From TrEMBL:
<keyword id="KW-0812">Transmembrane</keyword>
<feature type="transmembrane region" description="Helical">
    <location>
        <begin position="33"/>
        <end position="55"/>
    </location>
</feature>
<dbReference type="Pfam" id="PF05493">
    <property type="entry name" value="ATP_synt_H"/>
</dbReference>
<dbReference type="InterPro" id="IPR008389">
    <property type="entry name" value="ATPase_V0-cplx_e1/e2_su"/>
</dbReference>
<comment type="similarity">
    <text>Belongs to the V-ATPase e1/e2 subunit family.</text>
</comment>
<keyword id="KW-0406">Ion transport</keyword>
<keyword id="KW-0375">Hydrogen ion transport</keyword>
<feature type="transmembrane region" description="Helical">
    <location>
        <begin position="6"/>
        <end position="26"/>
    </location>
</feature>
<keyword id="KW-0472">Membrane</keyword>
<keyword id="KW-1133">Transmembrane helix</keyword>
<protein>
    <submittedName>
        <fullName>V-type proton ATPase subunit e 2</fullName>
    </submittedName>
</protein>
<keyword id="KW-0813">Transport</keyword>
């Protein structure tokens, strides 16, 4: 799935959740507290999802390799990063 499409889908989902929650809150006596709880829930859940989504797009920790795997990559892949540039 395209990253922008998933961003739009989940943003629309949490926006609809907040709008429907505010509409439903009109029926209750404590509508301002319910509306506040619904809006805070929608905002916090959207932010948690957004942070998780962004962290998966550009992870800080890359794959870790053992030395035999690294040596195999260097010997089998002639155009690897290690062969393109001279050693310092």
């Amino acid at each position: 799935m395209n990253k922008y499409l998933s961003l739009i889908i989940f943003t629309v989902f949490w926006a609809l959740f907040a709008i429907i929650g505010c509409i439903v809150a009109i029926r209750f006596k404590e509508r301002s507290i319910i509306r506040c709880c619904v809006l805070l829930t929608a905002a916090c859940c959207w932010i948690v999802w957004l942070v998780t989504f962004v962290m998966q797009m550009n992870p800080l920790v890359g794959p870790r390799m053992h030395q035999p795997v690294l040596m195999a990559m260097m010997s089998y892949w002639k155009r690897s990063y290690m062969h393109d540039k001279p050693d310092p």
